[in-house]
Amino acid sequence: MAGMPPTLSQFIRARQQDYPDAVGEFSQVMSAIALGGKLISREINLAGLVGATGYTGRTNIQGEEVAKLDEWSNDLLVDLLGETGCVCVMGSEEVEGPIVPPESASNGRYAVLFDPVDGSSNIDIAAPVGTIFSIQRRATESGVGNLDDLLQPGRSQAAAGYILYGSSTMFVYTTGQGVHAFTLDPTMGEFHLTTEELRFPEKSNVYSTNEGNSGTWLEPDLKWVNWIKQNDPDTGRPYSARYIGALVADFHRILLKGGIFAYPGNTGRPDGKLRLLYECSPMAFIAEQAGGAATNGTKRILDIEPTGLHQRTPYYIGTAREVELIGRFHEGRGPG
Q: CB–CB of 163/37 below 8 Å?
């Protein structure tokens, strides 16, 4: 249709011309993820009708109950990515170890890590959920991929993105050349470009965190949250709280409106809850490309060297000014 913005596949192909050594494998990987997003979106919309709500009765490697949609979406993405022949190994939040694709894909250029359904407990109440993915160039030279291909720092990602399933289905990604957002037109089955070069607003006084956990937070985080809730209009306080309970949804709101998302460590779990490779690194890559920041309180997320597939980290992501502010609390300096 004349005047329609480019589709995701058209946009990626156009950008591919900027990379003379490209052979089309990246486009195939992204197409597989996009197709997975369309199918997951359909399943979520029909969840109550097709029996996709609720849990399987199993627990995953994280010790969490496995939602029916988690299991279905994980298997779907493994199949779709494996069929491309471009992925040498995969890692999933739902699976303990590396996932090896069919032998035909053993020499694929890419390793892909993903959280198939982030915030799956929201499905039963029809609240937003998402898919998060990270694409790494393989570190090994050839053959079947392994942990070396998956355990790479976030700064080396070839691409990262998420798919938000809410009032509309959105595909947001970066390859290190800005952040671009696409919206699914369900009548055509295509993601169309809706925003090119997304950027965080410079200022915002919104915070997103599960403050119900604050009774076990560490001192820097308690001091931070108490400070931002004080009444001081000259410094934009108190902040407003917004929390959806799915990282993709909470981050997407902050990306568009500004603010900070925080999931601190606590006395019982000092390393936090969120997974470095499946959640934190990909979202950090997006945040930095949109002019924001992401840290564990003292260190840039993209500089953390992963030591395990399911490694966790405290997490602070959003507008650069707000992430820098909470860093001052963690360094013992306070708001300044």
A: yes
